User: What shape does this take?
Amino acid sequence: MDTALQHQAANEPTTAPAPWGRVRRSRHVADRALKITCTLFTVLGAFVLGWILLMLLVEGIGGLSPAVFTETTPGPGSQGGGIANAIVGSLIMTVLGIVVATPVGVLAGTYLAEYGKSSKLAEVIRFVNDILLAAPSILIGLFVYMLMVQPMGGYSGWAGGVALAIIAVPVIVRTTEDMLRLVPGSLREAGAALGAPMSTVIIKISWKAARAGMVTGVLLATARIAGETAPLLFTALNNNFWFNPNLMGGVANLPVMIYQFALSPYENWRELAWAGALIITMSILALSVVARLLLRKDKIR
Amino acid sequence: MVALSQERLVSSTDASVRRSSSPSFDGLFRIASLASALLVLIVLLGIIGSMIYGGWPAFSEFGLGFITSSVWNVNEDQYGAWVAIVGTLTTALIALVIGVPLSLGIAVFLTQLCPPWLKRPVATTIELLAAVPSIIYGMWGLFVFAPLFANYVQIPVSNIVEGMPIIGTILYARTPSGVGILTAGIILAIMIIPFIASIARDILDQIPPVLRESAYGIGCTTWEVVRNVLLPQAGVSIIGAVMLGLGRALGETMAVTFVVGNANRLSGSLFDPGSTIASRIANEFNEAIGLQLNALMALGCILFLVTFTVLVLARILVSRVKVG
Assistant: This one.
């Protein structure tokens, strides 16, 4: 680019007005440099996402077969098998996490937006929530290990669900509060003027008005926890069988399965890891896109 | 309508009967929401408490030497955190050096240069980059990026710098496998870009358009507007956004575990494998017993303190500008 400009500079003053017109040349160059760099950086970001998706498609589609969805994970070095137990285990723990996290997160967000507002306690909780939102998930895994795995005497799907719930709660709290704050105060006043107690105003008016945004928060939280690996490594672990119905003992799940299989020396395991990676990434991306579309539709209305 | 409701209000002499059922639910609802909010607080305290409780035996066994010692010997039960701490800080620093300019560039593109019709797709693409699970970045880093990095960067660079002072140590790969501290830093950079970029974009969007327009009005170029108007305005909160990214980079586990090489040695070269606090915990935790478990918990405690400090600083910096 530099040489091209110099080339232009050498030729053009005689033939035509310089492309930078009456602007000093260094300013023009700095401006062009900024625009080109910023555009390049953005293209690079999009390129990396495309590259990752392409890698997943190329490597993953070969491994996809009906058996992947029906059979359990194979033992070391054996052929065939699928990842059905990991898929079901992941679903159960994600659902468990969301079922625990949604009421807690929604109520806590409601407290911040409707009751606490700018009181000292609400400020502290908001602050702590923001910290938790960005806290390393591996620490949450360690915490749940101390809290549940050690006292209960072994890894369990329950511990995995709780760990995921702790990661999901801050996301839900944050979006719930943000969305409730967008609800105009006059709506609440109208409800209060009719003699409705605070809880009725919140449930019937605030929640209803902010519904789409709150659902988006839950979907985003689901997308966030569905791919979490580190906390599950210490809480649910993984195994190659169908887990106990009471979820005690190791529960197979996609992220940890991918982690263990991808780093294994067995070709068959690696193929299954790629298939699992494709499934989990596509589900999460689809979930995020749906959540965003939902929010956009609501904003237009 | 008004008259009707007034009449009903007057006629209902026994007001307490009408309200009898709701106050209890109202109070219950209030208490439930307060309890949920307090739960958030309790969880954070629980995390701090469990880290200190779990790590205490290691801290009391090795004292301050736990932080400064670079020994990690499972057989002799000797543990020190220095290698992991240095690895964590180095990878996070590399991630910032690469990631921050890229993120700011993307934020400037999105707010200043991008044509309106392209804004939403580009913003969504960058945000989706944040939704990709970290383990996928790890696989991409290990199976796709690392071989390319070894062939096209490590080997040529090592050949060039071999024998040079200082650079010859920092950028020399003894075994060009592609995995190592620098690879981990690059993957981390890609992972923190969406976070920093989207916060920086929000910050730039909040700057009143009239400032920008008046700068353009007196004939500033885009570069001059960005450099002299937007950056000073955004200033401190951009640093806050960077700190948030740093918090992510310090605690990121799975992607780093794939590409950092997991070796416990201090090396002068960025191409050599190392380990970070999070990768060591992820690697060894499931097989750890006794003092090793406590040492890993103590590592977690250090990681918590570092990220906590960074995140608190970030939060203060970001919020201060919003108020001011």
